[in-house]
From TrEMBL:
Name of protein: AB hydrolase-1 domain-containing protein
InterPro entries hit by this protein: AB_hydrolase_1, AB_hydrolase_fold, Sec-Metab_Biosynth_Hydrolase
Domain of life: Eukaryota
SUPFAM superfamilies noted in UniProt: alpha/beta-Hydrolases
Sequence ranges assigned to domain AB hydrolase-1 in this UniProt record: 7-252
Pfam families referenced in this protein's UniProt entry, alphabetically: Abhydrolase_6
Length: 260
């Protein structure tokens, strides 16, 4: 049997090149992997696109198109999602699981969802609803321009939150690779519970201050309640962006998931 293909759905504000170190490490282990450039994410770091901001559903459509092409080529896909990416990845899976495709006489398909400290909820709810509101008097970590693009105006705040387990200067360097993100995508409600289609693995980041561990555990419990199946959980000491701080641990997790 051929090795599964890792299709990686990025987080918000995160162009595909932000995950290039992970892509290179996974390829070095003999696996195929691709990090997607989502329509909701600006192309140039710090900037949006010329078009109106895309929706979460636009992201899901892109993911589904990529999955279908791989599946039609006979590949089994592990759909990996980080942060905001949990929502469009989950939305995208309808009809694309390996079991659903097998019933239609088709080969390939999604064999597992692998969530890496994601935003995730039940149908009818949005990514924004997953996060706890900021405390009174606490500034919002983003601002929205007249076109509907979100940006993160405070590099120090991003370094201290998204990259909280890295030295300040290194966190600031990673921040420079980030782009703007579509505001509407955070309020688009989920319509499809993709975690019911395939088995689920979850990388729980214990030091995450963006999606705190209590939210991650709440998501895991939600999946188990909704599906009646246990989630394969791996916990690591890492911040919201373990690909930046402990990429080898992320690779170890992916290799573990590939063998399930």
């Amino acid at each position: 049997m051929s090795k599964p293909y890792f299709l990686f759905v990025t987080g918000s504000f995160a162009p595909a090149p932000l995950y290039q170190n992970l892509v290179d490490l996974v390829k070095a282990q003999g696996y195929d992997i691709k990090a997607l450039q989502l329509p909701t994410i600006g192309i140039i770091p710090g900037q949006g696109r010329d078009t109106p901001p895309a929706t979460m559903y636009d992201d899901a459509a892109l993911i589904a198109k990529e999955v279908e092409a791989l599946a039609d080529a006979g590949r089994e896909i592990i759909l990996v999602a980080h942060s905001y990416g949990g929502m469009p990845a989950t939305e995208s899976t309808k009809g694309l699981s390996v079991e659903e495709r097998k019933k239609e006489g088709k080969k390939g398909g999604i064999v597992r969802l692998a969530y890496k400290t994601v935003l995730l909820t039940t149908p009818g709810h949005s990514a924004m609803e997953v996060l706890d509101p900021p405390a009174e008097g606490q500034p919002l970590p983003f601002q929205i321009d007249e076109k509907g693009w979100m940006s993160q105006p405070d590099p120090e705040l991003v370094a201290a939150t998204c990259f909280s387990d890295l030295p300040r200067e290194e966190g600031l360097r990673w921040h420079k690779l980030m782009a703007q993100h579509s505001a509407v995508s955070f309020v688009n409600p989920l319509t499809h519970a993709g975690y019911k289609d395939v088995p689920v693995s979850y990388l729980l980041c214990e030091d995450d201050v963006v999606v705190p561990p209590e939210i991650q555990r709440r998501e895991i419990k939600m999946i188990e309640t909704e599906t009646g199946s246990k989630v394969d959980v791996t916990s690591i000491k890492a911040s919201h962006c373990p690909t930046a701080s402990v990429p080898e641990k992320v690779v170890d997790w992916l290799l573990h998931v590939a063998l399930l």
